[in-house]
Amino acid sequence: MQNILVTGGAGYIGSHICLKLRESGYCPVVFDNLSNGHRDAIAPDIPFIQADIRDSEKLDRTFSEFQPTAVIHMAALIEAGLSMHEPSKFYNVNVAGSLNLLDAMRRHDCLHIVFSSTAAVYGNAGLDLLDERLPVRPENPYGRSKAMVETMLADYFAIYGFKAIALRYFNAAGADPKGRAGERHDPETHLIPLALQAAAGLRSEMKIFGGDYNTPDGTCIRDYIHVDDLADAHVKAVQNLTSRKNTTFEIINIGTGKGYSVKEIIELCQSITGQKFPVSLKPRRPGDPAKLVADPAKAKVLLDWQPKYGSAHDIIKHSWNFYMKTMS
Ligand SMILES: NC(=O)c1ccc[n+]([C@@H]2O[C@H](COP(=O)([O-])OP(=O)(O)OC[C@H]3O[C@@H](n4cnc5c(N)ncnc54)[C@H](O)[C@@H]3O)[C@@H](O)[C@H]2O)c1
């Protein structure tokens, strides 16, 4: 069985990817410092190394012991809003940490990598659908840190022969359809879990940041991708990289191609949970683009991937089921 090193594997998306890797016949090896992840999000029999991606010695030991075929690199700081106040932390973990990992991969001749990039690299493009050929114009240090790693990957492909795929996720959401994993960020900043916490009575109200965007109802529009579909895309990316003879570097959007406004998502959360929680309108937050919706065509052609869960209804339902299970 091939080992796949999963950095950030104890996090929200990582824990779902580990489930999918196992179901697909791989052995995930998780490398995570638990700064934002959960040890119990990973099955006890999955090899787990609690360490920081900036720690070269721990990386060297892990590569020597497990000899992974590929790396799925998710370890990062993820809060775009925080990056507007503390960019240094984001460049340190997301950029310097990634560089440290890539150089450990070179030392151990493990040259296959799937990288967690983000739709935040597009910034405020003002287009209905975003495709991978657009210039990158991130609006916050978080997005810029991810764009920098994409640039590093392009050079490591061209000069050191890496095979790399950067997946630009749109808004990851939902929970494992079988209820084995879900989203547990603390602090929580994502729309659907915040709305569901309001529905469960854990928040007194739900805040909407900005009602004056140039969108039909004035609130931001995002493309919500089910975390189970996202996990599927990673397994397909690993399969694609490891079956190729030639080196490659591809950037691929992972989204559905359908956008929902903040108001639409809140209304769906209220109708699915049957709870009418209070909603208040606040000023815009700096760094939030009005609309981010993927053109997902490249993922279908290159990875033979398309989402199973194309509607936000399933995403919210699975998240709500996970909340009900973990709160009971
Ligand atoms: N959640 C989304 O909607 C979304 C969208 C686009 C891209 N992404 C990217 O996907 C990846 C996973 O996101 P997530 O939502 O699962 O976040 P998460 O915070 O739940 O997971 C990140 C994991 O990385 C670990 N980590 C952080 N810094 C580390 C370090 N220095 N060394 C080792 N481990 C470290 C954390 O402990 C955590 O378990 C991130 O790279 C994020 O930027 C997420």
From TrEMBL:
UniProt-listed Pfam families: Epimerase
Record keywords: Carbohydrate metabolism, Isomerase, NAD
Enzyme class: isomerase
Cross-referenced Gene3D superfamilies: NAD(P)-binding Rossmann-like Domain (3.40.50.720), UDP-galactose 4-epimerase, domain 1 (3.90.25.10)
GO molecular function, a single term: UDP-glucose 4-epimerase activity
One of the protein's GO biological processes: galactose metabolic process
Source organism superkingdom: Bacteria
NAD-dependent epimerase/dehydratase domain segment(s): 4-255
Catalytic function, reaction form: UDP-alpha-D-glucose = UDP-alpha-D-galactose
SUPFAM superfamilies: NAD(P)-binding Rossmann-fold domains (SSF51735)
Keyword Metal-binding: no
Pathway where it operates: Carbohydrate metabolism; galactose metabolism
Enzyme Commission no: 5.1.3.2
Cofactor(s) for this UniProt protein: NAD(+)
Subunit structure: Homodimer.
Family as reported in the entry's similarity comment: Belongs to the NAD(P)-dependent epimerase/dehydratase family.
Name of the protein described by the UniProt record: UDP-glucose 4-epimerase
The species this protein was found in: Thalassospira lohafexi
